[in-house]
Specification:
Layout lengths: L26 E4 L2 E4 L3 H19 L8
Antiparallel strand pairs: 1-2
Protein name: Glutathione S-transferase
Organism: Lutibaculum baratangense AMV1
Length: about 70
């Protein structure tokens, strides 16, 4: 997917993990926006993290005791 994304559409200039400049080969789509990272490893770490959060949010919450 990253090859179809354009760095000109990127919402950030620096990697949220490292603070280094973003690269065209390390882009992803998040909530309809292009987000950039300094390398594919940081991008992959982000994609893994959001997948875990999305899965946790999709699970039903246990009933709380009163």
């Amino acid at each position: 997917m990253a090859s179809s994304l354009d760095i000109a559409d990127c919402v950030n200039d620096t990697c949220p993990w490292s603070g280094d400049p973003v690269r065209a080969d390390a882009l992803t789509l998040y909530r309809g926006r292009v987000v950039g990272f300094c390398n594919p490893g940081c991008r992959d770490k982000f994609e893994t993290a959001i997948a875990h959060f999305d899965a946790a949010l999709a699970r039903p919450r246990p009933a709380q005791a009163e």
